[in-house]
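Quick note —
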Amino acid sequence: MLFSAAGVNLLSCATGAGVESYIIPMAASLLRSVTATTSYVSLESQRAERVSILNKTGATLDIQMTNDTGSSKAISLADGLSVVIQVGANANEIQIKSASGTSGVYVVIDS
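Predicted structure written out below.
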């Protein structure tokens, strides 16, 4: 049986010797609305394992890794599409920009 409270999951299992319980920490998620500028800008500094990005700018959003820039190193995300990116340790490893320089970028940071 799984119980959730105060940021942790408690898993209880019936065994031949009784009931064993395990505390499983829940991953924290942060939801952010970000404005894309016409130049690459890093996402905020937050501890992260994965970053999900939803483009609702009405234009194409370009995404690149902070330490891996240059020609053919970015992906273009069309309006209405999303992507999940695995990062090493922090959300600021990702940079975004949009030719229109607009709001409408939604980011979920999972740690």
